[in-house]
Amino acid sequence: MSRVLKRQLKRDRDTSEDLPERLKGISCSPFSMHESNMALNGLEDRESSGVDNIHPEFVKHVGQTAKTNLLKFFNVVVVTISLLRYILIKLYNNYCVCAL
C-alpha cells in the first residue's frame, strides 16, 4: 500500500471507533438529474479544458441522452468509491487488530 493510503486509513481508524456510525453522516445517495443540471449550469463558459481536455461548453450543450449517461457514470463512481473506502478501512482495522 502507498504511504498516502496508509496515512489516510490510519487517520480514519484513529478518529473513528465505530465506522458504520461515522459513515451514516456521509450521503451516498445517487445524484439526481436536477443536481446534475444545476452543476452543469454552474460551469463558466470560455474556461480552459481540464486534464481530460473536455471544455465546459461541450458538457453544457450535449444532449439529454449524454447527460443521463454522464449522471449514471458519476453515480456508479460515487457508490464504488464509497464502498471501496469502507472495505479498505475495515480490512486495515482488522489487520491492525491482528498485528497487535
Quick take:
The protein is mostly helical and 100 residues long. It contains five helices and no strands. The model has no long low-confidence stretch (mean pLDDT 76).
Q: Helices and strands in order, then pairings?
A:
Layout: H1 3-15, H2 19-23, H3 33-41, H4 56-60, H5 64-99
Helix pairs in contact: 1-5
Give a quick set of tags describing it.
mainly alpha; 100 residues
Q: Report the mean per-residue pLDDT as an integer.
A: 76
How many H/I helices?
Answer: 5
Instruction: List low-confidence stretches.
Output: none
Radius of gyration: 18 Å
The count of β-strands is 0
Helix content: 55-70%
Q: What string gives the helices and strands in order?
A: HHHHH
- The global form is elongated
Measured between the Cα atoms of the first and last residue, the distance is 19 Å
Largest sheet geometry? none
What structural class do helix, strand and pairing data support?
mainly alpha
Q: Quote the beta fraction.
A: under 5%
Describe the structure.
By secondary structure, the chain is mainly alpha-helical. It is 68% helix and 0% strand. The protein is built from five helices and no strands. The longest helix is centred in the C-terminal third of the chain and has 36 residues, at 64-99. It is elongated, with a radius of gyration of 18 Å. The model has no long low-confidence stretch (mean pLDDT 76).
